[in-house]
Predict the structure.
Amino acid sequence: MGTLDTGTVRPKVSASSALAASPRSIGGLRSRAAACTACPLYGRATQTVFGEGPARAKLMIVGEQPGDEEDREGHPFVGPAGRYLDKCLDEAGIDRNDVYLTNVVKHFKWVPQPRGKRRIHSKPNAAEILACRGWLEAEIRIVSPDTILCLGATAAQAFQGRRFSVLEHRGKILRSPDGARFLATYHPSAILRMPTSQDRAKAKALFLEDLRRAAT
Ligand code: URA
C-alpha cells in the first residue's frame, strides 16, 4: 500500500467544520447540513444533497457534487451517472444498500445553458471544496469505512492533493490521510462521455475491476 506526496495541503479550517463537529449520527449531520451556508453554492441549489447509506458501511464511495436530478430529488447518485454506477455495482456483485455514497461538495453548482433552460454542471472550485470539507470529514469520522473509493479527479484530489492524477493512480490501493484504504477510479460521467463504444467498454471493464477491488 503506497503513500503519496501529491501536494496534500490541509492548513485551512473548513467553514463547515464547526457546524459538523457535534452531531454524532449521519442523521444529525444531515439535518445540520440542510441549513449550510458555508459557501455561496446554497444560493442557487434546490437543497443540500447529503451522503446516504449505512452508518457503518465498509465501503464509502465519494463523487464530486450532486447533479441536476440529485439536486431536485435530494439524494446522491440518482441521475444518469448514478444509474450507470448502480448498473456497474450490480455487475460487480456489490449491493448499493451496503455502500455509503457521498460527494465532496453537497450543493449542485450550475450555470444556465446559453439560450436554453438547462442547468449546466460547473466544476466546484478549491474554496467551495474546502468550505464543504467539514461535512465529508464528519461523515468519514462517523462511518469509519475500511475503504474510500473516489470517483474522478475532484474527489480524489480532495483527499490526495491537487497534483494527484487519477489516470496515473487509478485502481492502486493507497491510504487516505485519515488512514482508510483508498482507491481512485473514473467518474461514471467521464465513462458515459467517452467518444467511442470501444473506449467506454474498456473503461467500464477497468471501473468494474476497481469496484470489486474496493469492495474486497
Ligand atoms: N455525480 C456525482 O459526482 N455525484 C452525484 O451525486 C451525482 C453525479
